[in-house]
Amino acid sequence: xxxxxxxxxxxxxxxxxxxxxxxxxxxxxxxxxxxxxxxxxxxxxxxxxxxxxxxxxxxxxxxxxxxxxxxxxxxxxxxxxxxxxxxxxxxxxxxxxxxxxxxxxxxxxxxxxxxxxxxxxxxxxxxxxxxxxxxxxxxxxxxxxxxxxxxxxxxxxxxxxxxxxxxxxxxxxxxxxxxxxxxx
Length: 184
Ligand SMILES: [Zn+2]
Ligand SMILES: [Zn+2]
Prior knowledge:
Blueprint: E1 2-8, H1 13-27, E2 30-33, E3 44-45, E4 50-52, H2 53-67, E5 75-79, E6 83-85, E7 88-91, E8 93-96, E9 101-105, H3 120-138, H4 157-162, H5 169-177
Parallel strand pairs: 1-2, 1-5, 4-6, 5-9
Antiparallel strand pairs: 3-4, 6-7, 8-9
Helix pairs in contact: 1-3
One zinc ion (ZN) binds at residues 133, 137, 143, 153.
């Protein structure tokens, strides 16, 4: 499988490089880096000072689909913008299976968001886990009850920190029954 990786806005190069090098090993897919896209102004909520994740995904998804020749290749967008979705005050990520697209936000994965010192190693670790998680949804994985599994639902950064960047045995078995084989 091939996945397009599309930076949106100002995403540190180290984060993109880490996703490019680590995600293929864990997920067993090729990841191809695409040109940077800009955040759609229409998706910005002036009152909340956040971007509507669903709108960002639908605008970028249709723009990128228009540009790309093969529409069947899934797109993973990575942005520095803070995202919200429906009734939630924020989301780390959102996927739209119908559009074969997912987005993750690094805004709240940064230690400095929580008044800690900036730490690129911590940011990269969290971003890689969230990228694998969203690609996992694309591959048909649901949320997992094992807190250390990369498919566990993580509403806070401590939940993200507590999980590994790998799929648990239960998730692998379920995936194999659907014909999806995860390396390792
Ligand atoms: Zn999820
Ligand atoms: Zn699992």
